[in-house]
Structures are given as structure tokens and as C-alpha cells.
Amino acid sequence: MGIRFHTSHSRLPERIHRRGLQRFITAGASRTECTLNRRESGHFQNVAQTQVLMFDEAGVQVGLATFMADFDGSLLQQILPEYYQRLFPFESLSRWLTYGKDLQASFQLRELAFIFEDNRHARYRSFENGTEFERELCKVNPQKIDIGAVYNYKPKDHKKFADFHPVERELIFDIDLTDYDDIRTCCLKAKVCRKCWRWISIAVGILNHLLQRHFGFKHCLWVFSGRRGIHCWVADAAARKLQNAGRTAVVEYLSLVTSAHKISKPTPKRVFVHPMLEEVYKYLMQSSDVSELMLEQGWMSDDGLMSLLDGCVNEEVEKEIREIIHEVKVVDCLEKRWDALRIKFDKYKRAELRKNGVELCEAASPQSSFHFRSYVLQRTYPRLDVHVSTGINHLLKAPFCVHPKTGLVAVPINPNQISDINLAKLPRIDTLLHEILKLDHNDESKKERKNFEIKHCSLGPYVETFEEFVNNLIFDEQRHNQ
């Protein structure tokens, strides 16, 4: 496939100098002369932007894209100001952090921390209102914004009061795919792909269910971290008022896989499974993500099947499982191997087939089935960063921040659509700025123009998801306070 270049005019921030602009737009393509014409007012100037037209061998156009290589983090500080001014949803974020209360009285007690390019942290920042926060953020342009707790005094005055302490904050959870590196076969460390995203999809499904059904929480905000994980903000009033002991109790209830990533124990002669684990196991065995995970991670290959023996310390159980593995290896189709294991070990699969009149082979012993259950849970259950959740004063990245390594925006995600997320299409700061530069503007006010740009770029649907969450939350807060 050949590539032909086409030059068109667009606008970019004047903070981007000539060489940086060329790197930002051409990303290593043929150098194109870019003329900067400074305007007396506004933040833009006209430039010649290189785009790429894709043609097949017959010369037929098959696609149009701005030619960008992997995100160049060195340019982030130059384009962040435009992102904050034109796309960052200050108003929605301020409404969330005040929960429909008096904006000034509640906002000024919330800690906001700024992290800058040199990894310098500015903690205990607080602002009188959302307008002051917006003004300061657009002035200093930090690479990251962290949200902390609500305190009994203004955080910026924390040195004045000996009894300064946090009084409430959202219950938060952090799931990072690096915690799955001992079982991930598709990627390692910071790398993420569609296959390992299934762990995130499974984790969101399980935790969202448990938080709602077992704790009664209704308002759970799920936010992509910007690189390789996801954050959860439980914003119900009862969750926000939990002190460290209460948060620890919730996390301990939800935690299964330890920091060593092991849950295996000697297989008991009399099998008892906690009702919560039974509920989770049933969910997992009915999840298409789990079935795909078993195949994509290579666990149904000849070598992968032997991982079924991991953690098995009972000789009789180990012998039985080895025999079952030997029988399953005869099956060539990997998908059918997983089905065969389920028929042997999983009572829910057996009950389903029996209901349909299928004649079944002999089931595995209760002890071996218990071990199989532990195997499934160990490889699929959410792995929580306990320390993030237990401290009421712990900081967590704010929604809509930009990750400095990837350029991706930390966007809220509908938990019901988590498995449909296409990582390649998540909003990236340079792409967003390119999108809004192509928009036609009328003579709107600054606020109207910002709302228009957000709505008509790929960030728009995620802002709508966030605003729906905030509206539902505030509605419940106000109804409860009546």
C-alpha cells in the first residue's frame, strides 16, 4: 500500500514552536514547511498541517488519517494548556465534588493535588470555588490532578491547625494489569492489549455486582486509568463517610487473591464454599470473557493445561486431575477442551446439560472440583491494590486527566459497556485537539464554544456518561436530604 501526502490548513496552539509542531503533526513523515502567523488575539495561528491519504495499489483511496506515531510525551506540556481550556469539563467535575451542596462551602474543603512535569507534587491545594480551580489549573497546567479527601479545614491552611484531619471521601478501588503479570501471557508490565483487557472487564463486572448487591451502593464511577488499569469511585454518602477501619473491612471482604497472587490451600475433605465466592464463581463460569480468557492466554494448550495442577497439595486430587488432563488433551479443539473441563468439574454446566437431556460422564470428585474452582478464581478474580482503598486520605487521579506516557484521557466508562471498549479508540489528547480544530464555529460565547467542542469530539460520549452519573448522584443526595 502506498502513501501520498496532502497538505491542508488548520490551527494549533501558538505555544507549539516550529520544530515541535512538525513533530506533533508529521510524527516522522516527510518534513513539511509550517508557517506560523501570530494573531494579535486568541490562542491560535494558521499552520499547514500534513495529513495522510491512504491508497491501495490501484490508487484507490481507502482511508484518511492524521499520521501520528506513538504518542510523543515530550510534547504534552505544550498541548496541555489547550486541552484544559477547551475540553476539560470543569463544571461537571465541580458539581460532582460538591454533591449538589453549596458550591463554595463544600468545594473549599476538598484537597486537590497537582503533579508537574518534573514529578514535583503540590499537595493540599484547595480553592474557594470551581472558577478559582479552573483559573489556577489553566495557569499552572499540571500533568496530573489528584483528588483527595474532604477535610475539616481548608487543605491550603493545613499547617495552621493541629487537629486537621479528613472527614470523608469516596471509597476508591484501583485495578492494575501489572498485578496479573504472573499469569498474563499476552503482555507484560505497561503493555496492554484487547486480550488482557478481559481481566478489567471481568473485574468491573464482579466488583460492580458485589458493591451493589452485598453493600447496597448505587453510585459507582468507573474510570479508565489512561494506561493499563481502571479506577472505581464509590460515591454513595454511606461509602464517603467510612473511616479507615470501615474501608479496610470492605476491602478485606472483597479481596481474595493476595499480594502473592495465591489463594490455594490444602483441599479439605469436607468442602465448604462461602456464599459470596459461590456467587462469584457462578458469574465467572457464565461469563464469555472468562471462556475467551482461557483460550487466549494459552491455558487450554497441552502445556497450559498442566497449570491446573498449580497449588495442588493433595496427592489423590493431583492424580485425579492428571487423569482428566490426559483425557482432555485427546481433544484437538481448544474451545472444546474448556467445555470438557467444565462438564467434568463445573456443577452449573452439568446442571444445564442435564436439563437439556444430555447424557453426562462421571463428575470429578468434590475435592477436585473445589481445586478447579480455586484455579478459576485465582486466574480471574479482581486483584485489588488494598492500600489505595483503606486510607481515607489517599489520593487518586481525577477523571479526564491525561496520562503523560500514552496521551490517553482518563475517561469514565459505563460498566455495562466495559467489554465492548476498543482500546485503540479511547480519546487521546492530540487526536482530540485535531478533532476540534476541524469544527466550524459560530460566534458563540466561550462557554458555548467549549460545550460545542466537547459534544462534537470523541470525548463527548464519555463526558455524557460522567454527567449522567453526577446527575443521578445529586438527585439521590437531594432526595435523601429532604
Automatic annotation (TrEMBL):
| Superkingdom of the source species | Eukaryota
Q: What is its EC number?
A: 2.7.7.-
UniProt GO BP: DNA replication, synthesis of primer
Alphabetized InterPro entries for the sequence: DNA_primase_S, DNA_primase_ssu_euk/arc
| Record-linked NCBIfam families | primase_sml (TIGR00335)
What this protein is called in its record is: DNA primase
Q: Which organism is it from?
A: Litomosoides sigmodontis
SUPFAM superfamilies linked to this entry: Prim-pol domain (SSF56747)
**Example of a GO MF term:** DNA-directed RNA polymerase activity
Q: Which UniProt keywords apply?
A: DNA replication, DNA-directed RNA polymerase, Metal-binding, Nucleotidyltransferase, Primosome, Transcription, Transferase, Zinc
Pfam (any one): DNA_primase_S
Quote a single Gene Ontology cellular component term: alpha DNA polymerase:primase complex
What the record says about family reads: Belongs to the eukaryotic-type primase small subunit family.
